[in-house]
Amino acid sequence: MEERNICLMNDSFPPVIDGVANAVINYARILTENHGHAAVVTPYYPDVDDSGYPFPVYRYPSMNLPGKLGYRAGIPFSPELMARLEAERFSLIHSHCPISSTLLARSLRDQIQAPVVLTYHTKFDIDIANAVRGKLLQEELIRLLVRNVSACDEVWTVSRGAGENLRSLGYEGDYVVMPNGVDFPKGRVSDAAVEEVTGGFDLPAGVPVLLFVGRMMWYKGIRIILDALKTLDSEGRAFRMVFVGGGGDKEEIRAYAGELALGEKVIFVEPIRDRERIRAWYCRADLFLFPSTFDTNGLVVREAAACALPSVLVRGSCAAEDADDGETGFLIEENAASMAQTLRDLLEKPEQMRRVGQQAQQGLYLSWEDSVANAWEGYGAVIEKYRSGGYAREKTASDEAFRNLGDLMDKMSRLDRLDLRKTVEIRGKSLSLAEVSGLIHKILDQGEESLRQRYDRFL
Predict the structure, then answer these.
(1) Residue 431 and which of 85, 227, 267, 390 are 20 to 30 A apart at CA?
(2) Exposed/middle/buried for 314, CB within 10 Å: 0-12, 13-18, 19+?
(3) pTM summary value
(4) What is the pLDDT of residues 166-192, one digit of tens each?
């Protein structure tokens, strides 16, 4: 069998920790351990150390994004990087972000003649709305995103809901649902491990523990949780609510919990990178609350299921796609009253929560090993189809990809919250986003050589 080398691209990667970064880490790890070879290509972060990974990590220039987002914008424009990637002789390029990463993936595709698969993880229209002021600019960025997605050879989504979100943005092509897995084994950690992690918190015996794990952002449905808890508190019900994670809205969320006078009943825990310590929290809790309609897959729901912890989910959300109400999860309407009523019922029925948790473990759990094995099989089909000419050639124009990159840089330079004094380094030159955009368009006008030959000569 031919040995495959897979190029994984994403705009987020440690030190940023989010669901997609976690997916890319597990893809790279399991591909390297069980199947073939893999490398990760991602934006540069200051003082980052990638030496501990069992696979190579390539970084390209980036710039801080404004506000509370906590991400850097990748500027996938580096002749040195392109030369190194060409030398890797990748069999397939798998992008996990439809913007900068996919622009780079499309450019690399034409240099090495390898297919591009995109996995659509996130509702990017919501991300764009949170990051960009101005309806016109939002619409321009969404159109660029859809053009980028449409130019990929194959599109995967992590859920049916993610695919429908992509269609709502204007994408008209086909997609394959390829769910993500979780890196927890089935089963609980030891009681001693639970006590070590959670024992220092005010969690009285016999008092139900409710849990949320994830980015502390309002769009995760956190206001629904807090308003429902206020109702329960006003009725004199005992509980503890634990939020584990960080995010741009965390201080506002903490302040709102204070306004509701929830006091010691709400506990905020800093982000935890140690997976066994996170497992300990899942094992200590009685119920996982995840009323998010933003998430397209809800890996935390499968993490909870691995520990036999049942979840409360919004009916019709992507996170609830595979959950059966009262069997493998508990479904509510997207409001605090519905959440409060469900919690009111369940806190009196610990046996029902335990039963549904056990059934969730059997029905919702998917390991990363199984998920990546499914992707590996899919890679083989994509490579074969690409080599036989099964994908439209008009999708493989790197000049168009680079022109889109120039347009993206131009649009980003118009973000009114972006500090335009910040620059990126290209071969020792400090360039603003607007200057990068202009440089890209000049390179595109240089003639008929390959794209890399042109920017090598121009720079």
Answers:
(1) 85
(2) buried
(3) 0.79
(4) 999 999 999 999 999 998 899 999 999
